[in-house]
Amino acid sequence: MGWWLSRALWLSALAVVAAGAQAQQLSPGFYNATCPALQAVVRRGVARAVRREPRMGASILRLFFHDCFVNGCDASVLLDDVPGNFTGEKNSGPNANSLRGYEVIDAIKAQVEASCNATVSCADILALAARDAVNLLGGPSWTVPLGRRDARNTSMNAANTNLPPPDASLSTLLSMFRAKGLDARDLTALSGAHTVGQARCAVFRSHIYNDTATNATFAADLRANVCPFTGGDANLAPLDPQAPNAFDNGYFRDLVARRVLLRSDQALYGSGGGNGTTDALVRAYAANGTAFAADFAAAMVRMGSLVGSGGEVRLNCRRVN
Ligand code: HEM
Ligand SMILES: *[C@@H]1O[C@H](CO)[C@@H](O)[C@H](O)[C@H]1NC(C)=O
Ligand SMILES: *[C@@H]1O[C@H](CO)[C@@H](O)[C@H](O)[C@H]1NC(C)=O
Ligand SMILES: *[C@@H]1O[C@H](CO)[C@@H](O)[C@H](O)[C@H]1NC(C)=O
Ligand SMILES: *[C@@H]1O[C@H](CO)[C@@H](O)[C@H](O)[C@H]1NC(C)=O
Ligand SMILES: *[C@@H]1O[C@H](CO)[C@@H](O)[C@H](O)[C@H]1NC(C)=O
Ligand SMILES: *[C@@H]1O[C@H](CO)[C@@H](O)[C@H](O)[C@H]1NC(C)=O
Ligand SMILES: *[C@@H]1O[C@H](CO)[C@@H](O)[C@H](O)[C@H]1NC(C)=O
Ligand SMILES: *[C@@H]1O[C@H](CO)[C@@H](O)[C@H](O)[C@H]1NC(C)=O
């Protein structure tokens, strides 16, 4: 047997193992027969929410990231705590007083149930809603593979350990994404989500007070007007001040100008780490919004195929059946 053939057999064996480890096979037409109205219903629900409050598009996108990075995209993030029984992800460090959009997903789920009862998982609704949110803010669209199933358990600890912190170095970011099968290119493209939405003073204070490479005018303005050294923890600033609700490549120009809120953002550019890989990508995306849009869409599909071991289609996204 030639080396190439044994290598091919080995790779296909690995692929079978990987597929076997996945609970579900995803495909875009999964609900074609059982819920033909699905995509229109989800898009209408997201459009209504974004019209009411543009930031909600960003919030829904982040909800999907926080779902997928914790036990796979299984709607585990949507489970309410049940006092005395179950403590889930909502009150974890990264999510408490921060993650939002749960009511929007509830409203869409109710609409979906009205059209196709007990058929579509909350995890799939969230995957479609995140895609629509990006597109409604002016970003790309993409085909979403479907067929995820909803988790019956999760833990607060899983959220605390799987979600990257805002003071993460580049090597920490790379290894946390690598742990999900995502590479430096995925990390850089997906971080471009910070071209929309807002962050609290509490998470960017250390960057604007301590990181000297930050644009001095930018940091001084935030210190004076948004984020005092003590207090004001909940005060908000836009992650991309140039166009906070436009899904464009502005975030990458902010990185090059060193005008971003989070230390973990600036780590992608000019930190001297990563052998320049992320620096080169940041420059490429800053110069070419089309290249960013294409890579972002592809990376969202990869992140979205981190399936969990979920076993049901929840009737109410907040609790197990
Ligand atoms: C690379 C590591 C990442 C870190 C350390 C990080 C951290 C953060 C932090 C600290 C905030 C502000 C939270 C607050 O102030 O309450 C935030 C907001 C946000 N993040 Fe990330 N994030 C990362 C990657 C991502 C990814 C991959 C996505 C989506 C694909 C994403 C989407 C968002 C969005 C859209 C917001 C704004 C949400 C809103 O306005 O409600 N982030 N992120
Ligand atoms: C599902 O429907 C879409 C849109 O109508 C169509 O493009 C796709 O081919 C269908 N897929 C299957 C497997 O039927
Ligand atoms: C809570 O407890 C019940 C009874 O033991 C169990 O069936 C259920 O799965 C638990 N978890 C949640 C999230 O409700
Ligand atoms: C949907 O189906 C579930 C389970 O079959 C049932 O308990 C529920 O009452 C149904 N809801 C509606 C709105 O038909
Ligand atoms: C969920 O429950 C299963 C079976 O009890 C267990 O193997 C798994 O570790 C649990 N997952 C989490 C995140 O608690
Ligand atoms: C800045 O760094 C110093 C030294 O590490 C630390 O004591 C201080 O708390 C930091 N300030 C902020 C606002 O994070
Ligand atoms: C920092 O940003 C301001 C715009 O607010 C710009 O005028 C200035 O040149 C920048 N400083 C440096 C050192 O790039
Ligand atoms: C850095 O990147 C260059 C060019 O891609 C490569 O040749 C070199 O081996 C890399 N160095 C390290 C330490 O990874
Ligand atoms: C921008 O990126 C796209 C997609 O990769 C590519 O086709 C196009 O040629 C690039 N445009 C420029 C001006 O480099």
From TrEMBL:
Quickly give the catalysed reaction: 2 a phenolic donor + H2O2 = 2 a phenolic radical donor + 2 H2O
Q: Which cofactor does it need?
A: Ca(2+); heme b
- Annotated binding of Ca(2+) 1, by residue: D67, V70, G72, D74, S76, E89
Q: How is the cofactor bound?
A: Binds 2 calcium ions per subunit.
Q: Where is the site Transition state stabilizer?
A: R62
* CDD domains per record: secretory_peroxidase
The Gene Ontology CC terms held by the record are: extracellular region; plant-type cell wall
- Locate the residues binding heme b: H194
Keyword terms: Calcium, Disulfide bond, Glycoprotein, Heme, Hydrogen peroxide, Iron, Metal-binding, Oxidoreductase, Peroxidase, Secreted, Signal
**Chief location bin:** secreted
Name the job this protein performs.
Answer: Removal of H(2)O(2), oxidation of toxic reductants, biosynthesis and degradation of lignin, suberization, auxin catabolism, response to environmental stresses such as wounding, pathogen attack and oxidative stress.
What is the protein's name according to its record? Peroxidase
